[in-house]
Amino acid sequence: MGKTTRYRFREYHVTAVADPMALPIFEAVCVTGEERNCAAASGELHAPEELTRWIAGHCAQTGHQSYEQTTRTIVRAEPGAWQ
């Protein structure tokens, strides 16, 4: 018979903290459409107000009301203690 090996795993706690040197990125894509999405995109913006302004402008020009919004932030992992 073979030897049984048991592994014991501990949990490692990590806290993700926003990197203060990196600007967040906000983007939106227009997903209005029945047969296919409009797909107009805002591009990368660095303030939520800029994104809101882009969405409002696209909506005013086209009447489109559905958007997929993405927010990206660079975070740093700050390791905690083993549990």
From TrEMBL:
| Any Pfam family hit | DUF7848
Identify the residues that the record assigns to the DUF7848 domain, covering every copy. Answer: 2-82
Q: Which domain of life is it from?
A: Bacteria
Tell me which InterPro entries the record gives. Answer: DUF7848 (IPR057170)
Recorded protein name is DUF7848 domain-containing protein
